[in-house]
Amino acid sequence: MSYVNTAWFRDTHEAPLFINETAVRIRAGLMMFIPIFMAFTLFDVLYTPAWLVDVATLEDAYKVNEASQVIHTAEVVMRAYDYTWQSGVLVYALFELLAGMSVKTARFSPSIQLASWLARYQPAVWKPMAPKRFAWSLGLVLASFCWVFFNPDTFAGWMNALFMSEVLPTTYNYIPYEVPVTLLYLCLAMMWLEVVLGFCVGCKIHSLLVWLKWIEEPCYACNNIDWDAIRAKNASKTS
């Protein structure tokens, strides 16, 4: 049995769509393992030695340097990094974010299915889907950028073939390490705020863009105004 139509969407046929904030926060907690995995990867790349010393080949050269330190010789090799697993995880993250964008594809998302099942007995908090969709779009940008960082030569090949010119190099990573690290910390912070505090940064940005009239959205609060109750309250005051 699928709980997506009952615990994720309020009504799949209504417009605009409303989704369950409780299930959304559970899903964010499940998806948070992806940036944590990426954080461990980048930590390994940035803060662990890039050169490996074969201790078995270590020999005393019977020399000292200017600092009176004994010089040894050894076989030293540079580490080769394979980002196959990381790339696969990022592709899955992109699939999850894209699947959550519409009613037809949400059922194919394992995280939405699991989050909906976990939220089936909890009180539903219905929120408009448009701000969440905007927040997930930001996640798509961040995940795509991380994928490019792990596969710079592949992306460069695509761009060079598209423009029929060498617009990006294919022999080295043209993205500084500081950029994905900063974006990763930003992603972790945004997901932590969503899971723990229920504060959706992407939704706030969406609200700001609506306020600036860069995005047109209906007034969801206006749809829930009970005019009869307001009239009755005003009548009781005047009487």
Textual characterization of the structure:
By secondary structure, the chain is α+β, with helices and mostly antiparallel strands. It has one domain. It has helices spanning 4-8, 21-31, 33-47, 84-99, 103-106, 110-118, 129-150, 152-163, 178-197, 201-211, 227-238, and strands at 18-20, 51-64, 70-78, 126-128. A hairpin with a 5-residue loop joins strand 2 (51-64) and strand 3 (70-78).
Shape: elongated
The average pLDDT value, as a whole number, equals 86
Low-pLDDT runs of 5+ residues are: none
User: What level of helicity do the residues show?
Assistant: 55-70%
Q: Can you summarize the main beta sheet?
A: 2 strands, antiparallel
Radius of gyration: 26 Å
- Say how many strands there are: 4
Secondary-structure map with pairings?
Layout lengths: L3 H5 L9 E3 H11 L1 H15 L3 E14 L5 E9 L5 H16 L3 H4 L3 H9 L7 E3 H22 L1 H12 L14 H20 L3 H11 L15 H12 L1
Antiparallel strand pairs: 1-4, 2-3
Helix pairs in contact: 2-6, 2-9, 3-4, 3-9, 4-7, 7-8, 7-9, 7-10
Keywords, separated by commas or semicolons:
239 residues, alpha+beta, two-stranded antiparallel ribbon, two-stranded antiparallel sheet, 4 strands, 57% helix, 12% strand
Summed up:
The chain has eleven helices and four strands; from the N terminus they run αβααββαααβααααα.
